[in-house]
Amino acid sequence: MTIRIGAVARRTGRRALAGLLLALFPAVPALATCAGNDRLAEIEAAQPGTEAALAEAALEHPYAEGRFWRVERDGAVSWLFGTYHDPAKEIVTLPTPVSKALDSARIVLLEALQADQNAMQAYIQANPTLFFTTGGSTLDRLDPKARGRLEALLGNYSIPPEVAGRMQPWFLSILISIPACTITAAQQGLPVLDETLERRAIQAGTEVAALEELDDSIGRMARLDEFGALDVLQATIVMADASEDFRATAVRLYLEGRIRMIWEYNLLEAQAFDDDMDIDAIFATFERELLIERNRAWMARILEETAAGDAFIGVGALHLSGESGLLRLLEDAGYTVTRQTL
User: Fold this and answer.
1) pTM for this one?
2) pLDDT (0 to 100) of residue 274
């Protein structure tokens, strides 16, 4: 893999970004259902012990495993569910414990709402410099080999090269990191897990709210250009053809509840495929900007609602683990967090 901005973005702001692509280029070609091979299984077959080593690295972090958690303080009980932003049937089919908690919730908090996706076209028009350059072409800044591969890849997204050249590197990196098959699914109206939660809550008459404004989530993505996003783009291009394989691997780990291992796997792939970049530093930047800072920003609203009880919180699963993950932050705030079996 590369730095795999998209692998992180899919579990932070993928829903809005997919909508952004559809707003710009609604004629994404119809592709087959997402396929892909489990790359970690292939690596394990060639290098036995790799998966165990990744699992050990993951378990060094608090709350490395588990998708669904009971959160309690002073008798007030709420629920925290780590999601994966994907329309696959095995992802969007809610486990019974999750379904029961959702149906009995007083309020549902999600990263973003469908209204954000619907507003994307207007947001682009109001903030064009976040997404598009005002100077030379981004493609002209790439080495010739990377540019050629990118131009061939753009056909999968119906993005003309001249339009791609005007995109900011962070934006272009994220778009080509999202498998075109999942964009097609979004175009066909297939909901990702977060949207499934929102629809279910609305049908039940439950209040639904977003943890952050669209301006905040997109702004954090745009800030990645301050941290070498052009290098990230070139690396992403190299491995973009395997994006469905990376997705298949992450889906398997997610369903197994090995959440932190998704991050460790991404790091392994990045280190293997690019020796010229400071991968550890870039991953640390991503973790800080896209996970840690967002977790901290969300906590005020999360604490407000969990104090009242009966809150259901659904966020990208990578937000759960780590010393600055939501589960640790809740524990530090005096909550008892208990993993639920799915």
Assistant:
1) 0.85
2) 56
